Amino acid sequence: MDKKNHYFDYASTTPLDKRVFEAMKPFFTDVFGNPSSLYSIGQEAKKAMDIAIKKITDILGCKPEEFIFTASATESNNLALLGIARANKKLGNKIIISNVEHKSILTASQALAKEGYEIVGLPINKSGLVNPAELAKLLDKKTILVSVIYADSETGTIQPIKKLGKVIAESRRKHNRATPYFHTDASQAANFLDINANNLGVDLMTLSAPKIYGPKGTGGLYLRHKIAIEPLIYGGGQQHNIRPGTENVPGIVGFGEAIEIALKDKSKEQTRLEKLRNKLEVGILEKIDKVFVNGNQSGRLPNFSNLSILGVDGETLLLYLDAQGIIVNTGSACNSRTSEPSYILGAFGRSDEYIRGSIRFTLGRKTTGKDVDYVLKNLPPIVKKLRGMSSPKKL
Ligand SMILES: *Cc1c(COP(=O)(O)O)cnc(C)c1O
After folding, report:
1. How far apart are CA 383 and CA 316, in angstroms?
2. 220 CA distance to ligand 1 centroid (A)?
3. What stretches in the chain show pLDDT beneath 70?
4. Residue 153 CB–ligand 1 contact under 6 Å
């Protein structure tokens, strides 16, 4: 039996790229100085950090001071929502978020609702897209923030961020205000899509290093110049007082390296992974009946395949696949502890039966045709077995 792992969960996390690891190494041991210190090993660390920031901000098309490092995309999303809401309270209390946001946006907005903010959900249409005209209807003078994910983490469906940005800019003009600000979570999208902030028309954008083959414990938030934001933590003035605390120098160096590599390989990987994903998906649809694709099939990230396999339980299937060395996830990786049905697939109009039978394959840099062949060989007999086991009345 093939004991090698066939990893199909790149949306949960990616392996650290060896080149990134090499670039980070000296900053754990030799160049360990505090970047705020004036002596040379401090300044050497500062210089490396500045180079990394420039690599990132060149890709975002912004100034170095417009990017804030955090410890995770979760923190970035919290900073964006709580920070903008609290700093701009005088301008209004309404916040609009789409119905397919990551749990960190959803729960941060629930916390804001307790503080008295009005949180308005923006539904997606039949194709899984936020409709710019629907957003236009919801925008008013007291809306201070809109948050719409660039590509969701369950189906990879790509939202029309540019168009939404135009609608938001129009609302600002109409009301002659600086608000609403526009935030997008680009954690999944950054591997494949344009993340130039001005092209997209966003004011804030969340990034995550461990989703782009960078180090864990490293996230970031693009924050347009001069936008008022309240920090989540207080300290010694680092990062313009927006996110103080001694910087994670190895992490930041790794982030810079990782994003540069991702950009370089982007179009090649896009084509390669799309072909592999399609081979996987078409193969599964051919070999197994009652399988349905979740998400917008004409506008998804190239590495996502979220499938509802009716008559099986996604989590049971996950465990059977794991026993064969195939690593996948169910609807939502982050919900697996709570085992509640995915609200994102629910927003896509899927009933509980479809959600229960959903598994998510996400491909990445190390995925090969052999991995896909291995799944196509091993998945059908497992599904057959599980379908045979489940009692008809339970279905
Ligand atoms: C993974 C992910 C996050 C959260 O990342 P953490 O590293 O767990 O903080 C947020 N948003 C999206 C879209 C993600 O895919």
Report:
1. 10
2. 11
3. 1-3, 331-339, 390-395
4. yes
